[in-house]
């Protein structure tokens, strides 16, 4: 015997214009991935069965999820809902949603200090920022703790609410001016027990730098300063290091001081 299964009719559809975020290939042509096009159609036809959305190029070949669907080409699609036959083919076109603007940026770094990608993001002042290095035709996103190499070009993207991610824009680097090296005391002159008291002792002997920020670091350091000590911290060592920062400049080299 032959068994026939009756369908519930043909799936109904119509031509669509899809508003989508797009990417740009190396030749400047905008496209969306096949998987993203299918997701956009799925939002319009939520009753489509699993794998029931098919998209085709102008010659009738089916796009895979990983294929580039160029916005300038002609495309068609079919929809198949559960217990129904597939729809007739209908055309669809892609309109690019507005992209976030991104312009070339210059990031200021301090000479002699190891800087990371996180420093770039801080200066971009945008929580959506992502940083990339170009590798051939690909862009590799960089981790926040990756050390910056100022000899190569970095790129960034940002994304504003309700807009698509920006195109990748280049980042250049400038080396900031360093605050003058301290010439203050290398030994305390009075009884000091806290970082705040040590600062007061140093400033009393270098009053001309009263407008500059003074930082105290534990130990006899060279260039790797680490984290400055809080004013309330108790002095438990006999040697410390200190440095100044003038407004608009990088932190100075350090000077050592011994607790008498």
Give a topology summary.
Layout: E1 16-20, E2 23-24, E3 30-33, H1 34-44, E4 48-56, E5 68-70, E6 75-81, E7 90-96, E8 105-110, H2 117-124, E9 130-135, E10 138-141, E11 154-157, E12 169-176, H3 195-204, E13 213-218, E14 239-245, E15 255-258
Parallel strand pairs: 1-7, 8-12
Antiparallel strand pairs: 2-3, 3-5, 4-6, 6-7, 9-10, 9-11, 11-12, 13-14, 14-15
Overall description:
There is one protein chain. This protein has 260 residues and is mainly beta. It is built from three helices and 15 strands. The chain is elongated, with a radius of gyration of 31 Å. The protein starts with 15 loop residues before the first strand and ends with a strand. The model has no long low-confidence stretch (mean pLDDT 92).
List descriptors.
260 residues, mainly beta, 15 strands
Please summarize what this structure is.
The chain has helices at 34-44, 117-124, 195-204; strands spanning 16-20, 23-24, 30-33, 48-56, 68-70, 75-81, 90-96, 105-110, 130-135, 138-141, 154-157, 169-176, 213-218, 239-245, 255-258.
**Rough shape?**
elongated
The helix tally amounts to: 3
Would you list the SSEs in sequence order as H and E?
Answer: EEEHEEEEEHEEEEHEEE
Number of strands: 15
- As a whole number of angstroms, the C-alpha radius of gyration is 31 Å
């Amino acid at each position: 015997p032959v068994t026939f299964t009756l369908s519930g009719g043909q799936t109904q559809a119509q031509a669509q214009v899809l508003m989508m975020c797009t990417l740009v290939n190396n030749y400047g042509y905008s496209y969306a991935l096949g998987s993203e096009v299918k997701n956009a159609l799925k939002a319009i036809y939520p009753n489509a069965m699993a794998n029931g959305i098919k998209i085709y190029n102008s010659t009738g070949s089916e796009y895979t999820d990983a294929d580039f669907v160029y916005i300038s080409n002609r495309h068609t699609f079919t929809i198949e809902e559960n217990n129904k036959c597939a729809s007739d083919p209908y055309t669809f076109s892609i309109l690019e949603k507005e992209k976030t603007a991104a312009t070339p940026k210059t990031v200021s770094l301090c000479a002699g200090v190891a800087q990371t990608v996180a420093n770039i993001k801080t200066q971009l002042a945008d929580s959506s920022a992502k940083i990339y290095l170009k590798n051939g035709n690909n862009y590799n996103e960089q981790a926040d703790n990756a050390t910056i190499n100022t000899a190569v070009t970095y790129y960034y993207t940002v994304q504003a609410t309700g807009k698509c991610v920006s195109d990748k824009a280049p980042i250049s680097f400038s080396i900031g001016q360093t605050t003058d090296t301290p010439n203050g005391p290398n030994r305390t002159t009075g009884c000091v027990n806290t970082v705040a008291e040590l600062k007061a002792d140093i400033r009393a002997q270098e009053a001309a730098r009263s407008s500059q920020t003074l930082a105290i670091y534990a130990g006899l350091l060279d260039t790797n300063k680490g984290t400055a000590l809080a004013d309330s911290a108790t002095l438990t060592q006999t040697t410390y290091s200190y440095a100044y920062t003038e407004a608009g400049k990088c932190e100075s080299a350090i000077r050592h001081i011994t607790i008498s």
